[in-house]
Design brief:
By secondary structure, this protein is α/β, with parallel strands linked by helices. The protein has helices spanning 9-14, 18-25, 38-48, 65-87, 110-113, 125-132, 156-166, 193-201, 207-220, and strands spanning 2-7, 30-35, 54-55, 58-59, 92-97, 103-107, 117-122, 136-143, 171-175, 182-183, 186-187, 190-191, 225-229, 240-242. The chain has a single domain, classed as Carbamate kinase (3-Layer(aba) Sandwich), CATH 3.40.1160. Strands 5-8-2-1-9-13-14-12 form an eight-stranded mixed β-sheet, sandwiched between helices. It has a two-stranded antiparallel ribbon with strand order 3-4. Strands 6-7 form a two-stranded antiparallel ribbon. The two termini are 33 Å apart. The structure holds adenosine-5'-triphosphate and magnesium ion (MG).
């Protein structure tokens, strides 16, 4: 059993406490963690006087934004997660998409998003090596670029789905600061392509959650079990299951 858990910057801020990290560390089987860090990045950008801009739920990365994002995500946030996992009893090693040629990206939409990448290649070798040595990899989504020597900022949900596919994970848990996908305050138990399209059309699915559901659908199509929720997912709460298309009603 191999589980990939993506912990959102939103959750790290709101509830990333020792109890939740113990639940993470106690998950059975092999464990790979991918983290975001949205709020922490925004704080440092503001301190440095770099504008905080978003386009359709994705962070725009220009100027010093790339360096700050790499420093905050691959440096500070990455090591805080490693340390918290270690303290919870699960030895971890922190890397980014740039290490061991794990994730390679190309510009997603340079005009609108700047130095934001989409993942074009995954090499899971470094993850396999760390797991074999008894360590849980903790992955920052900053990914290797092309020949220019500069990395790309990649949305952490996108990095997580490529990692999950690359290592052929059995399940992917996307942990945020909400109990799952919400519509009019109600938690949806299951979202498929048709429901996601309808929620997006009605502007119920916004910002980072819209990106998350779109990414989750990508990996659900490959047969991986995908759930979105808060830290209670780690102790068995169902959250919202993302499925490519709902199974047809059983015939009797
Ligand atoms: N229909 C919806 N249901 C639930 N949350 C929604 C919905 N529409 C928008 N959201 C927002 O999406 C947010 C989660 O996405 P966000 O990208 O902010 O967090 P994250 O992905 O967990 O963290 P990070 O981007 O730092 O990795 C929620 O906090 C909520 O405000
Ligand atoms: Mg997000």
């Amino acid at each position: 059993m191999l589980t990939v858990v993506k912990i959102g910057g939103a959750w790290l801020e709101a509830g990333g406490d020792a109890t939740a990290f113990r639940a993470l560390a106690d998950l059975p089987g092999e464990l790979v963690v991918v983290h975001g860090g949205g709020k922490e990045i925004s704080r440092w950008l503001e301190r440095a006087g770099v504008p905080v801009e978003w386009f359709e739920g994705l962070r725009v990365t220009r100027g010093d934004g790339l360096q700050l994002t790499a420093m905050v995500l691959s440096g500070w946030v990455n090591k805080r997660v490693v340390e918290a996992m270690d303290r919870a009893g699960r030895p971890a090693v922190g890397i980014s998409g740039e290490d061991g040629r794990l994730l390679r990206a190309e510009p997603l939409d340079q005009d609108r998003l700047g130095e934001v990448g989409r993942v074009v290649a995954v090499d899971p070798g470094v993850i396999r090596a760390l797991l074999a040595a008894g360590y849980s990899p903790v992955i920052s989504p900053v990914s290797a670029g092309g020949d220019g020597g500069r990395p790309f900022n990649v949305n952490a949900d996108e990095a997580a789905i490529h990692v999950a596919r690359g290592v052929e994970a059995n399940r992917l848990l996307l942990i945020s600061d909400v109990p799952g996908v919400l519509a009019e305050g109600e938690l949806l138990s299951e979202v498929d392509e048709a429901i996601a399209a309808e929620l997006a059309r009605r502007a119920v699915l916004l910002g980072g959650m819209r990106v998350k559901v779109e990414q989750a659908l990508e990996v659900a199509r490959t047969g991986v079990e995908v759930r979105i929720g808060d830290a209670s997912l780690l102790t068995g709460a169902p959250g919202t299951r993302i499925v490519a298309s709902s199974s047809p009603p059983a015939r009797h």
